[in-house]
Specification:
Blueprint: H1 9-20, H2 34-57, H3 59-64, H4 68-130, H5 136-141, H6 146-219, H7 223-262, E1 280-284, E2 291-295, E3 313-316, E4 330-333, E5 341-343, E6 348-355, E7 363-372, E8 375-387, E9 394-395, E10 400-404, E11 415-421, E12 424-426
Antiparallel strand pairs: 1-2, 3-4, 4-11, 5-10, 6-7, 6-9, 7-8, 8-10, 8-11, 11-12
């Protein structure tokens, strides 16, 4: 028997097939957000130091409570720091949620790659078995020439090295997957801790506002102080109303142009259906005493959806100007209100996005809902902590447009909600 035997065609094809199944590429991006989380943690700690410093600087005022204006100023600084901490916690939770989603996607992709690689490896082993080669020596001895023997030897060496690399890669990938899964669990624990801190800070914010409002109420008993405050507020509101009126006039101008071009009055499509959950709660109008039953996420018979899905307390109702000091909308609040979502009560186009800092409505949004039954509807959402839309943007009913805050001239976290019909203020509660 000669050293070199002629190998069958079937065995050659099977072995070549086995060799072709060994190549695969592994690549996976590292999770992002670690730097952001570290930066947020540092900012949060700095704000905590700032709060402590404020208390130390005003300790005599806190103990005596004699200079009420100074004491109110200290409380407002504490309120500002607390709101910034809440913003950080809310953003931190968002970053962690996004990291979890990214990690889960990476894990799913990597598990798929590992499964595919493992199947390729099994196919190669199966192909070798089908070729009839039960051992490396037999494979080499089946060579039909010295050159064939050398080629087989080099191929076997390459396959052996690649097999080792493949197994090492599979092992490393499994370890990487476990690390990512542990990171997800750590993120979830961090989210739970952040939410606990958020609840505590929200309660603290409510307490600070309550105390400050009591101090301001005492200050308002001083006629000179009260007159000065009323004049300040009237001036600020006049500036904001001028901006709103300008935006409203622009809306009317654009609508008239569109109506002229289309040969008639434009009408926005009616909103209907249930876009949210089925939570049911009662809303009491403090002015009329009337109770409205709100199905959260549902659309009322008049086509409106409640703008604050997580809140149901009206702290200040609609007051027409003929009752003295007017309140052109309703204030929607509740425990832990800060940072909760504000949604578009109807579909429409964002006509104004403004930020007046600590004056009037602070950060607010106006939405043009077009003509409905021949009347022009515009809504306003004020005192927001964050704004998620831009002017000219189309929004859908129930879409989040902002987050509840306490910007502007505010006595605590809430959403000031207005409904204008043909440019005139109306009682928002009547649409639910």
């Amino acid at each position: 028997m000669t050293l070199f035997k002629k190998i069958s065609k079937r065995r050659i094809i099977s072995f070549i097939l086995a060799m072709s199944l060994i190549f695969t590429v592994f690549a996976i991006p590292m999770p992002t957000g670690a730097d952001t989380l570290s930066e947020l943690e540092n900012q949060y700690k700095e704000l905590e130091k700032e709060r402590t410093q404020i208390q130390e600087n005003y300790q005599d005022t806190i103990n005596q409570k004699q200079d009420k204006e100074e004491y109110s100023s200290m409380l407002e600084q504490q309120i500002s720091s607390t709101m910034q901490q809440l913003d950080i916690l809310i953003f931190r939770i968002e970053v962690l949620d996004n990291d979890i989603a990214a990690l889960e996607k990476e894990i799913a992709e990597k598990e798929k790659e590992i499964d595919e690689c493992y199947e390729l490896y099994k196919d190669r082993v199966r192909a070798i078995y089908m070729s009839g080669q039960t051992g490396m020596l037999e494979f080499l001895l089946d060579s039909n020439s010295l050159g064939d023997f050398y080629d087989r030897f080099m191929m076997a060496k390459s396959v052996s090295e690649h097999d080792n690399e493949m197994m090492d890669q599979l092992k490393n990938d499994k370890e990487e997957l476990e690390a990512k899964k542990q990171q997800i669990e750590q993120n979830r624990a961090d989210i739970s801790r952040s939410k606990t801190e958020q609840e505590a800070k929200s309660a603290e914010l409510d307490r600070l506002y309550e105390e400050n409002n009591q101090i301001i109420a005492q200050l308002m008993q001083n006629e000179e102080y009260a007159l000065k405050e009323r004049q300040r507020k009237d001036q600020e509101m006049a500036e904001v109303n001028a901006e709103i009126e300008k935006a409203y006039e622009e809306i009317e101008r654009q609508k008239q142009e569109e109506a002229n071009q289309s040969g008639g009055i434009l009408v926005y499509p009616e909103d209907n259906g249930n876009n949210g959950s089925d939570n049911i709660f009662n809303v009491v109008d403090p002015e009329s005493g009337r109770t409205e039953v709100i199905i959260n996420g549902a659309v009322s018979s008049k086509g409106f959806q409640w703008p604050c899905p997580e809140l149901s307390l009206i702290t200040s109702g609609y007051k027409p100007s003929d009752r003295g000091y007017a309140h052109n909308g309703i204030d929607i609040a509740g425990a832990g209100a800060y940072g909760t979502p504000i949604v578009a009560t109807r579909s429409g186009t964002v006509s104004l996005v403004a930020d007046h800092g600590d004056k009037s409505y602070g950060k607010f949004v106006m939405i043009d809902h077009g003509y409905i039954d021949g009347k022009h509807y515009v809504t306003l959402y004020g005192h927001c902590s964050k704004l998620y839309v831009s002017e000219g943007q189309k929004v859908q009913q129930g879409q989040q447009i902002a987050a509840v805050g306490s910007t502007g001239d505010s006595t605590g976290p809430h959403c000031h909600f207005e409904v204008r019909v043909d440019g005139k203020f109306t009682n928002p509660i009547s649409y639910f």
